[in-house]
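Quality-control log, excerpt.
Job 1 of 2 completed; input and output follow.
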Amino acid sequence: MMTEVAMGFPKNQFGVPQYPDNDARKLFVLLSAIDLLERPTGSAIADLTSHAREAIDQDVMRLREEFGVNLHKVGDIYHIESWGDVIQREGIKRFLKA
């Protein structure tokens, strides 16, 4: 079930904004979810964010290439090693519940 946001973007049942695929904020929501979740597997990330599970690895690659995030997947679990020089963790966390 989606609800509308003041800015015109729908939110999922957890209040996570659903940005378009070509919007960098969608990547920021993904990164925030990886940071937030105790066990950030593809399934857990997809459940929380409504991010297409099959797009997660490709979008993790975009975070690495476009923003310099050092992010690894060990088994099924994603780990943020470093946020890089471009992204500020506290600023990005706001996109999860915008």
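Job 2 of 2 completed; input and output follow.
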Amino acid sequence: MPAVAVIILQKAERISALLEERVGVKAGTSLEAGLRHASRHLPYDARAAGRRLAAAGQLARRSAGIVDVDAHRFDDDYRVLLRHLQAIEPGRVRPPGPSVWRFVTGVATAVASVVVLGVGLAYAGLI
């Protein structure tokens, strides 16, 4: 395996480790799966960089396609993704709660908003 392929695989493993550490995503067998699960915690440019990084990792595993990887683009993508993942504090990202709980809190917020609006309009003498 060429040295460039080893470096690419090491960087991909580093990103997988950061996904697990910072976002709490169990990457499982592939970086692609981890990035899919963490996509809502990353901005668009980091998601795009992650997709390109995962594709380069797949090429590095095959080792024959390593010629197709642009080293400068790969390093830029790695830095973008690394910067965004390191900015996330460990434990800050919580797994989503049950969807029923989100629905109930959304309805409660809407009802409270309508009540506050009604009280404000009544106080102003508009209703």
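Post-run check on job 2. The CA atoms of residues 98 and 104 lie 10 Å apart.
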